[in-house]
Amino acid sequence: MVLVESGGVMAHPCGRTFLSALIQLVPCRPSVAPFSTLSPNILCCAAIKTLGQPCLCVLARGPPISGVDRALALQLPGKCSANFPPCEMLK
User: What are phi and psi of 37, to 5 degrees?
Assistant: First the structure.
């Protein structure tokens, strides 16, 4: 995990905490539920673009999230036209 220094205080790359980043992605939940065929909505895509690719990768590599299909979650940037490189490409 990468930490970013902000005003002398080490901050989580996805905001204050992992949980706060996860909460921002609540609008995406219907699109990432196991076996979902729903496209992400406008609020979900806005959240993906705001959080950015490094944060999405942190969430995807983090602990299991109940009710979330990681494969579907990793497809969100493409479905939202966010044009992020795949998480596997980052080091």
Answer: -115, 10
E strand spans, 1-91? 4-6, 9-11
Q: Which residues contact 53 (CB under 8 A, 6 or more apart)?
A: 77, 82, 84, 85, 87, 90
pLDDT of res. 56: 85
Number of domains within the chain: 1
Which residue range forms the structural domain that includes residue 49? Answer: 18-80
Residue 7 lies in a domain: no
**Dihedrals φ, ψ of 15, to 5°?**
110, -155
CATH of the domain at 73: 1.10.110.10
Residues 23-77 have pLDDT tens digits of: 889 999 999 999 999 999 999 999 999 888 888 888 877 888 889 998 999 899 9
- The answer to whether residue 8 is domain-embedded is no
pTM of the model: 0.75
